[in-house]
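Tutorial handout. Part one gives the primary structure; part two gives the three-dimensional structure as tokens.
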Amino acid sequence: MRKTDVGFFPSSNASSIVKAMLLWSVCQFSVGCSNEPVDDRSSFRDAPEARVSSGSVTAELILAADSSGWLSHGRTYSEQRHSPLTTINTETVNRLGLSWSYDLASSRGIEATPIVHDGIMYVTSTWNVVHAIDARNGKKIWSYNPQVDKAQAAKGCCDAVNRGVAIWGDDVFTATIDGRLISLNAKTGDVNWDVNTIDKNKPYTITGAPRIIKGKVIIGNGGAELGVRGYITAYSAQDGKQLWRFFTVPGNPADGFESPTMEMAANTWTGEYWKAGGGGTAWDSMAYDENLDLLYVGVGNGSPWNHGVRSPEGGDNLFLSSMVAVRPDTGEYVWHYQTTPGETWDYTATQHMILADLKIEGEIRKVIMQAPKNGFFYVLDRETGKLISAKNFVPVTWATHIDQATGRPVETPFARYYGKKPNIQLPGPLGAHNWHPMSYSPDTGLVYIPAQETPWVYGEDSDYQYAETGWNTGTDFTLGMLPTQKAIIRALKMSLKGRLLAWDPVNQKEAWSFEHGGPWNGGVLSTSGNLVFQGSADAHFSAYNATTGKRLWRFFTQTGIVAAPISYELDGDQYIAVASGWGGAYVLATGGVLPTGSKNNVGRVLVFKLGADGDLPELDQDTGVTPVLPDPIEASEETLKIGLKAYANRCSLCHGDQAYSSGLVPNLRYSAITKNAIAWQQIVRGGAFESKGMPKFDKILDEKTAEAIRAYVITEANSDRDAAFYRSLQ
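Part two.
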């Protein structure tokens, strides 16, 4: 153990026993001591097999969409995620095999789309480590560890994840979870520049991949759940200088407005909304039309979620849950379309947006398409933002339809929970479609969506007060926790669904669907070989007939896949590549109680081609060691009630429903820290493990409440809902 690993101890009079327990638990609360990312930027002289030329990436190169690489997040600026390659097709896909794999030395949440240029693949792993790999054989060229501030990463809502890099000129660009934007030399991995993009005093994060337009690196941020104000910013690719910033929600009117657009938006808000930031973070999706010269940005949920708390006298709250078009040179507002006015359910519109030209009623229309969390599939005129059509692509209970004349949803009477009884609803906050990218095939005219059904019980938190640390939703998360009866949990599990859905955007109807075992399946790639590729939560990667939905090929990946695949061609060989590694919000919250069979510590890049017959390393065998539970403690019903509510709202989203962890983070039921009240306080309130990604809650949890959480966890650990109980639900 390095000396730096023990530098977090608070200066206190803690006993030597407590200190020893803290030391013993370091690995439990980190990504894994044996998997600490390394900074290894080997030069090309040390990697003669590497093939990097001086071919600089330009807009013209991205627009040309050469099949030899994958130059932008969605392959092209239109974000269709469709490859024109045909060597791998419905007739040959049965000969597809593993060509190579690359170990990402990571144990959680691999969400990156690889970028491929000049035979080199660039991909990110947990904690924003960037890897440059020979795309022909999987040999490492260099890796770069930005040494992110893991204390800042604890402010993220949904795991320590990242969705990849961008490439421009001779440089690679990455954005980190602690809010930095970094330019690296593509050949060596050396840092060109490193700039901060956020207010470090606020709970901002970045999980999205940058886009680069006209030499401008464009990136948004996350943090709405914790209480921030959203924006998207353009930086110079040459030196990292900030060029413009577009705020997605207004700030405090007393401070003045940055633009007439923000003044207009402020008219749709009421109350002191700015105190909790307002939300509206642009944390993922973008697209660009080079002919219209419009950049499209997807905007997220409100802060807090609860509209009645956030904007008590009503109002649409622009630009929450909206697609917004701006000029990429200046950030000037052009148009917007709001999918969920007065958003109150975490129905973000940050989901993947696709540009296409569709023949609708005999006329070719330039459209932008999105399937956001709220369950409706939208087709808009991308020049004006006018609604062309919208229809639900999964069962929806919060609205009956989208009014064609106004473009607004027609809500059901009990959808809004402010001042009302709790309401079970579809979709829940995980959405009908989350961040996992969809694709569009111009060959079939279909959009392929990683769709899901995830119900949730919404009800307001009667004790809500804004907190500087932790989530700010204004909703009671205890209502969304799983019941404790096995039969009811099984029934609920049956209602959690996931599917690969082929959607006809012209006629707004399903073409076909393939049912998975549950939600949270990977992003999608379509190809001109009439194929669709997708990874799934049950640790498989599959190919489907794009026309019929028939599964034609499947490969066991050992770990669930949430990222989206790509395809590229080198030396006449077509490759299919995907980054594997199970993680994210659904996994952290429910992966222990609703397991999929996915293994940890096996995050990899997997690359396939015809005729290959490679194998993955064998999984480690179960050691058979039985974890030791803490001894029961006496706690009153009132204490356990306090502990349950605090745990649900502050802990469950990382440490799991019913305190049963997915394994990506420590299982508190078996932790040595849980067994010691002093050590528990030092971590939960004192921040002893803040540098490992465990936040301190001293500002919002007093000692009594923190101890009540410990009592709740110990009581759960000694309940009949043990490991055997949850295994029996599989």
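Part three, for discussion. Confidence is low (pLDDT under 50) at residues 1-38, 41-54. The CA atoms of residues 109 and 583 lie 4 Å apart.
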